[in-house]
Amino acid sequence: MKTIHLGNTPLEVSRIAYGCMGLGGSWERAESLNEQAKRDAVKAIRTALDEGINFFDHADIYRWGKSEEAFAAIWAEAPQLREKIVVQSKCGIVMQGARPESTVGQFDFSYEHITRSVEGSLKRLQTDYLDVLLLHRPDPLVEPEEVARAFDDLHSSGKVRYFGVSNHTAGQLRLLKKHLNQPLVANQLELSLLHLHLFDEGVVFNQEAMHGEGTLEYCRQHHITIQAWAPFKKGAVITGVTEPPSLAARDVACLITELAQAKGVNKEAIALAWLLKHPAQIQPIIGTTKPERIKAACEADQVELTRDEWYRLFIAGRGERMP
Ligand SMILES: NC(=O)c1ccc[n+]([C@@H]2O[C@H](COP(=O)([O-])OP(=O)(O)OC[C@H]3O[C@@H](n4cnc5c(N)ncnc54)[C@H](OP(=O)(O)O)[C@@H]3O)[C@@H](O)[C@H]2O)c1
């Protein structure tokens, strides 16, 4: 598997990452982690490692902490692995009822929440440090000075090596960067052939209702790696099935099938090769728990799309020709 540098850090990471949201069993808070979920997690992680993936994405909230807990089962089999892989987690989302006072789901970028969340992740992941910590979703009540203090303390105590964000706009990145002492190395955003806003905002600028503000370009300019979450849009990119049905989804899936047959590769590989072709060196975060789908996705590392193929897929996903 080819590698990229995360942001402008020396960290060499696989260009495809594994997202651990699907590990850990049930989303029910009351259900604790069971042995089957641990075995399934180890199987998925092993497959990802065998395919050359060295980057694993978590969040404190995934399955109420059970995804991180399940991941830790890998250390029992391979304790030497910790130094060889990159573990990323996220904080900042408070689930409804997670705290007595959180009567609704909300975001919290306070010093206390960020530092407490990291302590929880370290404990569940059974590790002394996170390689990367991301702020999960922008908190409108953010006080950047407080985030800076939390990041500095986590960094100086050796608990977190690098920091980044998720679902943040260029403006939100600019605000944080003005106050932070630690560089921001990643911005994790939803991006796939069926979720194209990030690419399309630069194409429709000054033509339609404008949305976005050059977030892709901002990240490229400042060496912030864009990580694409939901790169298969929960499988819809491959199956063409959405609810309600969408013509774009059907067209994307048909074209992917055609290209996969012509090149003799898996459909998943075509969907990811489309993201990998972008010069921003986007890192897709795949979320399937099925070993055969993990393998199929990693085949993308060997696929090179032409400019024409890339545009055909882009046009199928956006549902109309280029302006
Ligand atoms: N930053 C954020 O706000 C945010 C939000 C969501 C996710 N994430 C991260 O991004 C990762 C990936 O997100 P995701 O799970 O939504 O991504 P995805 O890879 O687009 O979708 C994977 C999901 O789709 C299902 N699926 C069905 N058919 C599939 C097919 N043919 N190929 C692939 N998957 C198929 C998978 O089920 P099976 O397991 O049965 O294959 C799995 O539940 C997560 O694990 C998490 O780490 C981040």
Provide the CATH topology: TIM Barrel
Helix proportion of residues, in percent?
Answer: 40-55%
Order of helices and strands: EEEHEHHEEEHEHEHEHHEHHHEHH
- Strand order across the biggest sheet? 3-4-5-8-9-10-11-12
Q: Give the CATH class.
A: Alpha Beta
Helical stretch count?
13
Count all strands and give the number: 12
Sheet-strand content, in percent, reads 15-25%
Low-pLDDT windows of residues: none
Question: How would you describe this protein?
Answer:
The chain has helices spanning 35-50, 66-71, 73-77, 111-125, 144-156, 170-179, 197-204, 215-221, 236-239, 247-263, 267-276, 291-298, 307-318; strands at 3-5, 12-14, 17-19, 55-57, 86-91, 93-94, 106-107, 130-135, 160-166, 184-190, 225-229, 283-286. Helix 1 (35-50) packs parallel to helix 12 (291-298) and helix 11 crosses helix 12 (291-298). With 323 residues, the chain is an alpha/beta fold. The strands form three sheets. It has an eight-stranded parallel beta barrel, surrounded by four helices. A two-stranded antiparallel sheet has the order 1-2. It has one domain (3-238, 278-303): NADP-dependent oxidoreductase domain (TIM Barrel, Alpha-Beta Barrel). Bound molecules: NADP nicotinamide-adenine-dinucleotide phosphate. Residues 19-22, 57, 166-167, 188, 229-235, 238, 268, 285-290, 293 line the site of NADP nicotinamide-adenine-dinucleotide phosphate.
What's the helix and strand layout?
Layout: E1 3-5, E2 12-14, E3 17-19, H1 35-50, E4 55-57, H2 66-71, H3 73-77, E5 86-91, E6 93-94, E7 106-107, H4 111-125, E8 130-135, H5 144-156, E9 160-166, H6 170-179, E10 184-190, H7 197-204, H8 215-221, E11 225-229, H9 236-239, H10 247-263, H11 267-276, E12 283-286, H12 291-298, H13 307-318
Parallel strand pairs: 3-4, 3-12, 4-5, 5-8, 8-9, 9-10, 10-11, 11-12
Antiparallel strand pairs: 1-2, 6-7
Helix pairs in contact: 1-12, 4-5, 5-6, 10-11, 10-13, 11-12
NADP nicotinamide-adenine-dinucleotide phosphate binds next to strand 12.
